[in-house]
Design brief:
Helix content is 45%, strand content 12%. The protein is of the alpha+beta class. The protein has a four-stranded antiparallel beta sheet, with helices on one face.
Length: 182
């Protein structure tokens, strides 16, 4: 997942009405802008409400690491009980598959949880204590009664002059150009 704000920055357009912001988002998406984001008290489009309908890399990584955890948990038990230190107790087999299942499941869950936790940190780009929108006066009202459409500039986005002109034609309250200094 690419960060929205590149070295070229992003344009933040503030709207007073949700319908204006929704129309601006849809129109910009139709014009080919790939790097769009909205900040509002509620989802503005059905696309945002339901989320993407494709597989992303985090669930695949979590599944793969869960499988690695299960295999490694079983392998450690097998090596310890069959090869390194076999015990003959009451004629029981050294390779007791049913006895290995609980530990194998625990290793699977441990690896999956660690992969999920690290994956969430990576996807959300955390810990990130500062974002450029924190410097915009009035941006905190996006959680109450303002609607922001953000257009990333650069690759997958637009250039500053053309995008500013297109946003002005949509009649926002204001347009702010912000750069990411991080």
């Amino acid at each position: 997942m690419r960060p929205l704000i590149s070295r070229h920055g992003a344009l933040y357009a503030e709207f007073a009405e949700p319908e204006q912001a929704r129309c601006a988002y849809v129109e910009l998406r139709a014009q080919g802008y790939a790097r769009l984001e909205t900040h509002s008290p509620f989802p503005l489009t059905a696309e945002q409400e339901h989320g993407p309908h494709r597989w992303t890399w985090p669930p695949i990584v979590v599944f793969a690491l869960a499988a690695v955890g299960a295999v490694s948990g079983y392998s450690v038990q097998w090596y310890a009980n069959v090869r390194a230190y076999p015990l003959n107790i009451g004629g029981r087999p050294t390779h007791a598959v049913l006895a290995f299942i609980p530990m194998t499941f625990e290793a699977l869950v441990l690896f999956a949880v660690v992969a999920c936790f690290v994956g969430v940190l990576i996807v959300l780009r955390l810990p990130r204590l500062w974002r450029p929108e924190f410097e915009i006066d009035g941006f905190e009202r996006a959680a109450i009664d303002r609607y922001w459409v953000i257009v990333g500039l650069g690759s997958g986005g637009g250039d500053l002059e053309r995008t500013t002109g297109e946003l002005r034609s949509m009649h926002p309250l204001r347009i702010v150009h912000a750069m990411d200094d991080a």
